[in-house]
Amino acid sequence: MPRPLAGKTALVTGASSGIGAAAATTLAEAGVTVALAARRKDRLDALVTKIEAAGGKAIALPGDVADEEVAKWVVAETLQRFGRLDILVNSAGIIDSGGLENTDTARWRRVLEINLLASMYTSRAVIGPMKAQGGGDIINISSIAGRRAAVLFNAYSASKFGLTGMTEALRQEVGRQGIRVCIIEPGATTTEVSEGVMDPTFRKFIHEHVSKEGAMLPEDVAAAILFVVSLPPRANVSQILIRPTIDTASS
């Protein structure tokens, strides 16, 4: 099998399931050495075993990247183990339901911490090393909810709108140093994202939405990630909206 990205290294957050796990697998198949970060160590260990059985190379870095010190550690450990870091995929994320009036502010804050601040922490940590090595790729996984607010998913929409703004500002900040920055906004993708929703009614709604017939698979989003990082360094795809073919809404 061709390995077009052989010699490159990547750190993928949220790698224990869903888009993060698919991204790690797809990058490894293309020859990338991958560091996997997420909270569930058993899932990471199983994915490392799977990648290595297929001839790839991976390490597990268990921890919660919403903790700034953990986020800095996973970047530092990747650099320590591999000597460089070419690709950062920020895929850690959760969804929760609720409007603003009666929200649980601790839960609201947790969504922001995981969906926005975790990506800020890891991105900040890789900028210096990527500058020193002459470039790299930072890819943030957002959502259609980052361009179209969803009623009763206030915190999720706020976190994804914030991630979109942060990503574009970062692209302008580091592009001249050879660092490409991209935000990918998936529509309905079959993952475990509904499991973290506290309200059972909305948990059922999200589960049905992401598992409906015609929904994308995590591997579809991973293919978009591979496309972005495979382009010549002079070309930066800064934003990708990717959604199921059956979803024909105008925005």
Number-wise, the strands total: 7
Order of strands across the main sheet: 3-2-1-4-5-6-7
β content, as a range? Answer: 15-25%
Radius of gyration: 17 Å
Assembly status? single chain
Structural class: alpha/beta
Binned, the helix content reads 40-55%
Biggest beta sheet attributes: 7 strands, parallel
Tell me the number of helical segments per DSSP (H or I, 4 or more residues long): 7
Net shape: globular
Key terms for this structure?
7 strands, 251 residues, alpha/beta
Secondary structure topology:
Layout: E1 9-13, H1 18-29, E2 33-38, H2 41-53, E3 58-62, H3 68-82, E4 87-90, H4 105-133, E5 136-141, H5 154-174, E6 179-186, H6 200-210, H7 218-230, E7 239-242
Parallel strand pairs: 1-2, 1-4, 2-3, 4-5, 5-6, 6-7
Describe this structure in words.
The chain has seven helices and seven strands, in the order βαβαβαβαβαβααβ. The protein is an alpha/beta fold and 251 residues long. Strands 3-2-1-4-5-6-7 form a seven-stranded parallel beta sheet, with helices on both faces.
